[in-house]
Amino acid sequence: MTEAVGEALEARPVSRLAMLGPLRDLRHHPLGMFGLVVIVLLVAVALFAPLIAPYSPTEQNFAVLDSPSASNLFGTDRLGRDVLSRVIYGTRLSLGIGLTAVFFGIVGGTVVGTVSGFLGGRIDTAIQRLVDVMLAFPQLILLMTITAALGASVRNIVIAISIGIIPGTSRIIRGAVLSERNNQYVEAARVMGASDLRIITRHVLPNVTATIIVIVSILIPAATLLEAALSFLGLGVPPPTPSWGADLGGQAREYFRTAPWMAIFPGAALSLTVLAFNMLGDALRDILDPRLRRGRR
Amino acid sequence: MIQYILRRLLLFVPVIIGVSILTFVLMRIVPGDVAAIALGQNATPETLEEFREANGLNRPLPIQYLDWLAGLAHGDFGDSYFHHSAIRDELAHRLPVTGELMIMSVVITLLLGIPAGVIAGVRPNTWSDYVTRTTAVFGLSIPNFWLGTLLILLPAIWFNWTPPFGRVSFFDEPGKNLVQFILPSLAIGISSAAGVMRLVRSSVLEVLRQDYVRTAWSKGLPERTIIWRHVLKNGLIPVATLVGLQVGTLLGGAVIAEQIFALPGMGLFTLQSILGRDYLAVQAIVVLAAVAYAVVNLMVDVVYVWFDPRIRYA
Amino acid sequence: MRPSSYWGGLGSRRLSRRRMLKAGAAAGLGAAGLSLAACGGEEEQPAKIETPAAELTPQPGGSGRLGISVDPGSLDPNLSVVSGFLSCRIHNPLHAINMDTQELVPLVAEALEQPDDTTFIWKLRSGVRFQNVDPTYGREVNAEDVVFSFDRLKAGPTLNDRKLLTRYADGYEATDDYTFRLRTSRIYSPTLDQSGNFSYCVVPREAVEKWGDLSTRAAGCGAWILDDYVRGERVRLRKNPDYYRAGRPFPDEEEWLIIPDTGSLWQTFRTGRLDYCNVNVDKFKRDEVKNDSSIAVVESPSLYTINCYIRVDRPPFSDDRVREALDIAIDRDDYITKLYFGEGRYNGPVPWPLEYWALPQDELRSSLKYDPERAKELLSAAGYGDGLELQTPVPNIGDCPQVATIIADHYRKVGVNLKIELKDLAVYLTQYLYASEFDITFFLNLPYMDPDMPLRSYYSQGQNADKNPGLSNDPEVDALIEGLWEIFDREERRKAVLDVQRVLLKKHGPLYPLCSPEGYVGYSSRIKGIQEGTGVIGWLGINYWLEQA
């Protein structure tokens, strides 16, 4: 996660960028468009899962380890559950956790980073020391410890991943805030007597929005993969909740020779999701990156 | 320069202490009593108490912490509750494994990522750029544990071949050792290579637009020289950062790769220790990881200067 | 992956049976009586194979490569519970009980006398020596060593079963160099079974004093010498040339590779790099290997059991009707199908792999017959006609999560909503199991080598502590179990054990017996003579040999 955030260090915010601009520019990025379309489809699948999925993902009614057939398009798994239904419902979990964790993480990180950068002085130093410590803490260990402590559940995984996101994000936001803090609009606002909060919300935050967008585009796939990795290890969501990572872990690999579909479909779904977010993220970054913009046309 | 390094080294200390305190607290508040796990279902209240006394678990927390810290200063990480053996020995055994895995992964990442990024950057928006970028995005999207799984399963199924398990040191049997490590390194390295490729590409693009490069172009310098002398040096700075961060993650343990390929490294050790509430082991691991992370980042920053003498360290 | 720890040794404790399910093609096994099981998708009877053992003469030499998915953690027989299959190679106990024939097999002891009901006297064999390595250098084993080992086990701390020493032994001593005597404080017939367990292996004092414990370094009196044990990687053993049974063991060395991921372990075995792996070779895997002549499959049920504990001292399970309802609401046939691909059998209070002591299958099937209708009636009568909400803490180990999932599915059909809360093992043990903080839960049991152990879960004083997990306190049950201790004659005891089980089944608690799988392990066709024997006897590693090309 920290390395993903580090990549974001390479994108720099642009002042006063209207949000529609980038979306319009997406037309010129076929890969990004593809990513966006896939994401929209995935969200739709997640929202309408009960309508789309042929069966319940937890019913163990079918023949065990059955190959794909007319009644079970993706075959059945170790306990006789329909793989297609599990993959469809798995969308809810992966997207849900990815989006929620990133949301809370970004909010938390933005708050911390803004406070730190804006107030400066000793508060800033203190917070940054704490962030240093958190950043030096190996991330997976933090996650494993938190889930071990709180127990494995969707809520706790979201909490754990969010906590992992906050330090890195706060540092980046702080950097952006610092660079904005000294610009003229802010000076002017101060002179005119605007309150800190107003300055933050009116002048500083909009300019870090672009950075935030870029970070989000990197973090969502990272968070999704993190949940999958935790579930793969058996530390993630408890059964029988369908999770792509958990379905990939477990015994899918032991039975790979006899029933490869058990592992292939969740794996493909996971890869596709991450792929889509990465493509969209790539495109967004290209668009929002001023250096490239200037060099493009 | 030396001053800079020294100052950074001094900063290590509070950070490491902070990390150690955080770990200490975290492990203690995590529920699950070490004594009960070690002794199991047949434990009686007396044996539990014996265990706790024997391991100093009844002393006040700050005392336990200071005791441990004192031990650290001597390089003594304490004894594992489960194995009654020095944690240091276990670490000494597992660090080289993870170290080798890390080094090979980074090598693969750089070998794949940098050339690809350079190609894509030097020829933007051409088919080679698109191909490389698409490949990169695919590479990034495959979870490294899925890739690792495939790397074990497919050779077994297609070629009836699995890596020779039974770890040997590189110095004893380099061939066998490399064969064992190549697949997990690939699994980890390919995922990261994609990220590196992206970064290199955008760095290269930026550098190419700089005045001094344009000057070099106009002077008629061959492309290769330009790339070597200017683009690479400057374009690789962000790569160094990324590698620095990646190393930190790797040291936390490529748990899954170690699991799938049966490499007895830090990652698996971490998982087992956390689950077994082997407090001292986890503390030791975290401190080591934090130190390694800090050292690597320091090295990265030093590398910055080597790449670009213009960067000043105020 | 589930975290491997001493609890996760599914498959690492095998009873080796005589039945070979599928033979590898091998010169010498001959065609006589061999029929390969046709591994189709339907139920078939395991093929009976007459192994013409007389045709095969053991060949000495060779080195075996064996793969296991569980790191033993420690090879100390007295203080570690997982390592039995390895520690019995390095060390030997006084005797062992052959679990098939119930015969006493003398090992370090050559004879055992029982002058009265509470006195046991072992006569040690002369000429049994500790291995010729540092620090024992081949010295002879004497009765003081037995005293030392028993003291060590008794003192602990250890998970091993040692209640014989801590609760029922009145005292033990070496009456001379070759005689060891133990007295019990009450008549306790499980003495012979329990003292034949690997935790009672005889170990040398000087080794313990030198190394602190025998977890990674050892000198013992067993057939194999420990060369090294690298945690997380491997255990290397070599033949003890001075073992008291001359000529054995046959191979020169064994290398046990630890591969924690069962998927990788299976693939490694499939590609011929291992001679043995402890992954359960179920129906689908047998199908995979049916045409592979280099792999043999042998029946080998596991001694581990998954039990369902219920807390009987408070509602809802304090009500007889609820207990019975939720016992017969478990569709055990479906359980076997789902979890074991149809290759499993019903357990009674004593699990079926302890065949001598277990109730017959047809009796179990009728006593534990799946009856959702009656379950619903009972629940209604008890006041839960509108449904029952239950939560279960489940440890993330072995098959426990899957078991809980399957049973939750069954319970849903009778209107019981069982919510699964997955806990990590450490938390589960301390906060839920030991504290009895559950209404219903599922857990893996340590291996049982004699019937007293599984029955202890019904006994008010439990295994060792003063309670059993379900907090049941039934004087009738206690009296029945204590009554079993008074019977030494095996046949008589067996009948009594069966009768006690019948009573326990009717109580429907504090345990619901589930099912155990018919386990199978894979060997490469290089390994011969694998019908070793059950339990400790099989683990000594002195019966098999490797075919040399």
List keywords for this structure.
heterotrimer, A: 297 residues, mainly alpha, MetI-like fold, 13 helices, C: 549 residues, alpha+beta, 8-stranded mixed sheet, 4-stranded antiparallel sheet, 17 helices, disordered N terminus
Question: What is the typical, i.e. mean, pLDDT of chain A?
Answer: 78
Tally the helices of chain A.
13
**Nearest-angstrom radius of gyration of chain B?**
24 Å
Tell me the total number of β-strands of chain B.
0
Brief account:
The complex is a heterotrimer of chains A (297), B (314) and C (549). Chain A is mainly α. Chain A has helices at 2-8, 20-25, 30-47, 49-52, 83-119, 121-136, 139-150, 154-181, 184-191, 196-232, 244-248, 261-288, 290-296.
Q: Can you give a write-up of this model?
A:
The complex is a heterotrimer of chains A (297), B (314) and C (549). Chain A has 297 residues and is mostly helical. Chain A is 72% helix and 0% strand. Chain A contains 13 helices and no strands. The radius of gyration of chain A is 22 Å and the shape is elongated. The two termini of chain A are 33 Å apart. Mean pLDDT of chain A is 78; it is low at 8-19 and 291-297. Chain B is built from 14 helices and no strands. Chain B has 314 residues and is mainly alpha-helical. The radius of gyration of chain B is 24 Å and the shape is globular. Chain B has helices at 2-29, 34-39, 45-54, 61-73, 87-122, 127-141, 144-159, 174-208, 211-218, 223-235, 237-252, 255-260, 266-275, 279-307. Chain C is an alpha+beta fold and 549 residues long. Chain C has an eight-stranded mixed beta sheet with strand order 1-13-21-12-2-11-10-9, with helices on one face. Chain C has a four-stranded antiparallel beta sheet with strand order 5-6-8-7. A three-stranded antiparallel beta sheet of chain C has the order 18-14-19, covered by helices on one side. Chain C is globular and about 70 Å long. The model of chain C is unreliable at 1-18 and 24-55 (pLDDT under 50). Chains in contact: A-B, A-C, B-C. Chains A and B meet through α1, α6, α7, α10 and α12 of A and α1, α6, α7, α8 and α11 of B.
